[in-house]
Amino acid sequence: RRCHRQGDKAFWALRNVSFTVHQGESVGVIGPNGAGKSTLLQVLAGIITPSEGWVDVDGHISSLLTLGVGFDADLSGTDNIRLAGAFMGLDHSLVEEKLPGIVAYADLGEFIDAPIKTYSSGMRARLGFAIATSVEPDILILDEVLSTGDAAFRAKSKQRVGELVHEAKAIVLVTHDMNW
To answer: Taking a C-beta distance cutoff of 8 angstroms, is the pair 135, 102 a contact?
Structure first.
């Protein structure tokens, strides 16, 4: 994806990138700021269309990249779960069925009924992660979200990612945590 020109030289956030992720595999993308990690995830999630080349995805993608954008700050956490479900094309009855589990996993207590604008970034990440992993995606895309929140939630989310891998899901993760 060409970002802009600097004089006579074009700047490419990504160029000549090629990889395959199979069912049950996870890929960690690591690099310095400005290396194109988040751009890569946005291309995989369909948020950005490549200027050249192509992306071939076989399966349902769930991404916190799109969920964070889709949150309505004036709606409660519960209503944002419903909204996110609609954005993901899920049937309303399925969202209602999954709602109690998402609420329990996010573990936001009474804040689940408060407007999202009152949430900390960690609370938003918890809710987004709970939604993204509740739909049992074929491919899960995560961008540094697991560094947010307290130690207990980080451990819980790492365990959930492990479960998704064992369920033969594919995961693409951007992180600065080499332990991942």
So the answer is: no
